[in-house]
Amino acid sequence: MTDAAGPEVAYRRILLKLSGEALLGREDYGIDPSVVNAIASEIVAIHGWGIEVAAVVGGGNIFRGAAAAARGMDRATGDYMGMLATVMNGLALQDAIEKLGVQTRLLSGLEMDKVAEPFIRRRAERHLEKGRVDLLVAGTGNPYFTTDTAAALRAVELHCDVVLKATKVDGVYDCDPMRNANARKFQTLDYMDALNMGVEVMDATALSLLKENGLPIIVFNLAPGNIERVVRGERIGTLIAPHVGAVLATAE
Questions:
Q1: pLDDT tens-digit profile of 22-54?
Q2: N or C: which end of the chain has fewer CB within 10 A?
Q3: Which CATH number, 3.30.420.40, 3.30.450.20, 3.40.1160.10, 3.30.750.24, labels domain 13-248?
Q4: What is the pLDDT of residues 166-204, one digit of tens each?
Q5: Which residues, at least 6 apart from 50, have a Cβ–Cβ distance to it below 8 Å?
Q6: From the DSSP assignment, how many helices (H) and strands (E) are in the chain?
Q7: 225 CB-near residues (< 8 Å, 6+ apart)
Q8: What pTM was estimated for this model as a whole?
């Protein structure tokens, strides 16, 4: 697909999943404005190519409910606190994108009408059709569900072409590449391979939902320029999709 304003692109509507940790940059806690601005610039660039962008933002740079539960906090309470952290990240990204001249809508799984609209599927789709970037925060609005599951759910609801999961690693490996120098990256994986291997890139609920709906996932490193490379169809990271098989990437 080619848009008059930009290069040939592989997708027309995407769900971009950003972890809260991606916003840390070199900070130990919170938000690094330079990282937020860099991500916003790439979103604005691909938006200019005619791509409709919805983004789900995590909150792990501020608060992680599961970690708090492990230390004795009630899990539901911790998860609600984590949802509020995602709203803070969404507001930061909204500010950065709109300063670059693109309209956004912050859509929340929790009702908080002073800062965000409630997530209503048809309204969210209409925003995309109108050329606005949807920033989807507060997860599903329910405890015990991760932002990965929220990303899978929203991608299916909004009829996205693909889920792009931007992480700290450059794909899915057969073992932890941080602990094993001989870890091998997969170029492609079938959903069942990913589920059976218990890969940590997405939880099983999210993977199962995407599998049931045949929606592909690309897992890649959030390095400068990589969002643009992925939407142009360059083969980076790991593609998880139906019937592709487990194929190891060749050495670069």
A1: 898 888 899 999 999 999 999 999 999 999 999
A2: C
A3: 3.40.1160.10
A4: 988 888 888 877 788 888 889 999 998 888 887 777 889
A5: 3, 4, 5, 6, 9, 12
A6: 8, 10
A7: 42
A8: 0.92
